[in-house]
Each structure stands twice: as C-alpha cells, then as structure tokens.
Amino acid sequence: MGVNKSIKILGIETSCDDTSVAVLKDGEILSNLVANQKIHSDFGGVVPELASRAHQQNIIPTIHQSLALAKTELTDIDAIAYTNGPGLLGSLLVGSSFAKGLSLGLDKPLIAVNHMQAHILAHFILDNESIPTFPFLCLTVSGGHTQIVLVEDHLKMRVIGQTIDDAAGEAFDKSAKMLRLPYPGGPLIDKYAKLGNPEAFKFKTGKVEGLNFSFSGLKTNVLYFLKKQMAKDEQFIDKNLNDLCASIQKTIVDDLIKQLLKAAKKHKVKSLAIAGGVSANSELRTRLMNLESEGYTCHIPKFEYCTDNAAMIAIVGYYKFLSKDFSGINQVPNPRMKL
To answer: Are residues 287 and 313 in the same domain?
Structure first.
C-alpha cells in the first residue's frame, strides 16, 4: 500500500462515555483530546442517556481544542473519520451526526470506522515504541469485547476466538463491585493487586472449546466465595483486599495469555499484540512482554491508545483514505457491529 504524504484526518470517537477528537497527519498524531464523563461514577456504571447528552455538550469544544492544538483549520482536513459501532446507540448517533454535518459542510470524504478495528490499528500510530509486522495476532480486550484477531493487513483481519459470554473487562469491573470498589473498578484491581499475593485464593474461568473465552463463571465463583467468607467474618474483604485483587487478576490474565499462546501455535504466528482498555492492565502487559523470552515478538500500544480515543479512529481513517474506502451519508450507526 503506497503512502501518500500530507493527508490530514479528523477522528471522532463517541462509542461510550468519552468524547474524543484527534487530528492525524500521515500516521502522526498532532492532537488527541479526550473529554471524560465523571458523572457515571455516581451510578456504578455508564448511563446511556447521560452519556449521549454529555457528548452533545462536549463535542464542539473538544473539536475546537483539538484543531487548535494541532494548529490545523477545518479546511485543511482531508477526511472525517468517526466511530460507527459497536457502542451505545445514543452516543454513536452524536458522533456520526456531527461527522456527517462536517462532511457535508466542508465537502470532505466521510469514513465510518469499526471501533474494534481501531483498537488494533492503534499499534500503527507512529509514536508507538514498536509497530507490528504482518501477520500478527492481537488480543483485543475491553469492557465489552474479548477477542483474538488474526491481522493479515491494515484492513484485512478476522476473529479466530472470542468470549462466549462476558468480556474480560466486565469480569474485572463486576468483581471490583463485589469487592466494594468504586466504578470503574478494573484499574483499582490492578492497583491493589500489586500489593497482594496472586496465589492466595483460587478462582476459575469457564472451560470452552477452541480459542474462545468464558468469564461469566468467574463472577459467580467470586460471588459465592465472598458470601461464604463474609458469613464467617464481615471484615473478610477489607482484611484480604490486596490478595483478592491479585488472585482475581491472575485468574483472568492466565486465561487470556493461555488462549493467545494456543492461537499463536495453531496459526504459526510469532508476532503478538494486545489492544483495548484492558491492555492498560500492568499484569497483562508484563505477562505479554515476558513471552519474548519464548521467541515471540510482542507489541503493546502506548497507554493513551489503550482506552477509547480518537487517535485510533483517525489511523483507521488514514488507511481507509489511502484505499479510497469512503462511506455514504446514509450509513447508520451499528451498536452491535462485528469486526
């Protein structure tokens, strides 16, 4: 795929509760701003209606700030890339509607982006420490998805394994809620796990065939274990929080790495990567890099490209622009879009 110079892409990401806008030039990020929605912490999870309203409030100032930081005018933009799914429908509608309005007003091409593809292509933003070579396997883990993807080219990839029920990120957050940790609890489990013994308690994930995952059983396992222990000692969680976090985290990461290695051997691929919100987990990052001692080449995106951000939307827009893969104004957001 030939690389044209001086292509500027405006990326818009509104799949969940973060409003993000980025400006990318030839694979280099000029700006990547994220407006967080802290209101959801009061409810223990994302409230879709509140999320879409906050996007409406945040999108215009975030675009203005991102363009100013990139020292770019709207007229300098070559195309507008936006998240078309998967995600919350109300949130997706805000970003897609705004992108379509810009496309019509500026007479610039419109590029619809799959959010999960964007997580994977975040590895190709130029300021990452390493960029994968094809083919590679990407373990994509977030609050809503857990997948193993065989990536053969920037725009050619297929899912070869995925969760049959809950995602790894959901398992982290739901376990954290049982441990009475505030939302979002996944990062807090990571924080307290560093102080605990991962062998203190034994938990199990579900057994599945092939390269798939199952995490719904883990939540049930943790729930009944805590109920049993709390019946004996009401202070059990407080007394054992670090060990509980470390043990839960080890159970999840063990399963993720085990299945990734199984996939690597089956498909004879030596290049491995992780992506998605859970790829910010320190234990998962460490365990992946440890695989380099077994002959694998491993890639981890910069921390700011792990969680939802518009830079990853813009990089997909860049490669789609090169392929002239543009979208129509009538394209409808798909909250359950598949990779």
So the answer is: no
